[in-house]
Amino acid sequence: MICIFCAIVARDAESSIVYEDDAVLAFMDIRPITRGHLLVIPKRHAEGLAELDPADGGAMYRAARTIGAALRTTSDVDGINLLQADGADAGQEVFHAHLHVIPRRRGDGIGLSGASPTMPPRAVLDDAAAAVRALL
After folding, report:
1. Which fold is adopted by the domain 4-106?
2. What's the chain's average pLDDT?
3. Which residue in 37, 96, 98, 100 is the catalytic one?
4. Which of 22, 91, 30 is nearest to 60 (CA)?
5. Residue 91 to residue 110: CA distance in whole angstroms
6. Is the pLDDT of residue 89 over 80?
7. How far is CA 10 from CA 4, 21, 44, in A?
8. Whole-model pTM?
9. Domain ranges in the chain?
10. Cβ 35 vs Cβ 103: under 8 Å
């Protein structure tokens, strides 16, 4: 079965396209968090970040930057969130890599929820950094 985003790239499924180039396609999210919320996807299928070709990832962020900058020129967009969920436990629902471009407006009430951030001691941060470096 073809994934819905691959079907959109192939024009076998409906979408409201905003931007397209050789590597990526951007279209309106069908369940927008805010007005103007859209998705940027690589045209080549990649389930998540581990499978995403670095060039395609760069193309996604370049397109998101261009679109976000254009949105920021309007009088009612005060900021932009870029969000990429990688894996079901991170909230990914469509398993084709995609980047959300979410226009923000002052007082829109949208925010990150969950545990309150902490400020761990530097030694804890240094240990975490060492653990991540060891994985690279």
Report:
1. HIT family, subunit A (3.30.428)
2. 94
3. 98
4. 22
5. 16
6. yes
7. 10, 14, 11
8. 0.90
9. 4-106
10. yes
